[in-house]
Design brief:
250 residues; alpha/beta; Glycerol-3-phosphate (1)-acyltransferase; seven-stranded mixed β-sheet; 7 helices
Length: 250
């Protein structure tokens, strides 16, 4: 019981500190220090939540579209602490308290749902980021789906940006583990706030996350977005399976 109370107190003071840091971090980001702000803000936040992060594989080069599976609302924080870059998010996220402000620090690309009907308007800002030499992180399943372990089929639409920008696609997997119960990092029902209030303080251990980067799929003018999505999905599924096998055996 004391351990749980300690974690709640640490969480309260830690999040208060991070809220106070957001405005100056926004200035740092605006002045060109976005990657610094994203990386070290993320590291502090992960330390508050007692989440340990490891990564394996070659770091994606700038100008790559990095295709991830989506497991937890922690995913952007985890990724940003390892490989800062731009994220894609639905436009509503921009209006969410705290989360929207934090997303703007990371120069998130907000996509209007209506633009899905117009592929060009949805692709244009993503292509621009890629051609300017930024990493763009894509949660290719389209949301947190399934059981948090099985990789769902990838949506093909946003792979068109890699085709148009002539950018490589890097398959990347997020694998959650550690001694904490699964409910500490994955949820299927209720809001993020409800999940955090009920399940964010596991008493049975730590949350450990591995970010596994695969070999990049080089640009090929003959490749379609459907082919890219299929290849990336296969590679991410293999990464998840291989890393989970190693974790379980270890």
């Amino acid at each position: 019981m004391f351990y749980k109370l300690f974690k709640r107190i640490r969480w309260f003071f830690g999040v208060t500190l991070l809220l106070l840091l957001l405005p100056p971090l926004r200035v740092v980001s605006w002045l060109g220090g976005r990657d610094f702000a994203m990386k070290y803000w993320g590291k502090v936040l992960l330390a508050i939540f007692d989440i340990k992060v490891h990564f394996s594989g070659p770091m994606p080069k700038k100008g790559s579209l990095v295709a991830f599976n989506h497991v937890s609302f922690f995913d952007p924080i985890v990724i940003g602490s390892v490989a800062p870059g731009s994220f894609l998010a639905k436009a509503e996220v921009d209006k969410w308290p705290f989360i929207g402000f934090a997303a703007r620090i990371g120069s998130t690309i907000f996509v209007e749902r209506e633009s899905f009907k117009n592929s060009h308007s949805a692709m244009s800002p993503i292509v621009k980021r890629l051609t300017s030499g930024e990493r763009v992180h894509l949660f290719a399943e389209g949301g947190i789906l399934g059981d948090g372990v099985t990789v769902q089929l990838f949506r093909t639409m946003f792979f068109q940006a890699a085709v148009e920008a002539g950018a490589p696609v890097v398959p990347a997997a997020l694998i959650y583990g550690g001694n904490a119960s699964r409910s500490a990092w994955h949820w299927e029902e209720g809001s993020v706030v409800e999940h955090m209030r009920h399940n964010l303080f596991p008493e049975d251990g730590d949350i450990v996350v591995e970010v596994a980067f695969g070999e990049p799929i080089p640009h090929d003018p003959a490749q379609t977005r459907k082919n890219l999505a299929t290849r990336a999905h296969h590679a991410v599924s293999e990464l998840v399976e291989a890393r989970r096998r190693i974790i379980n055996e270890g």
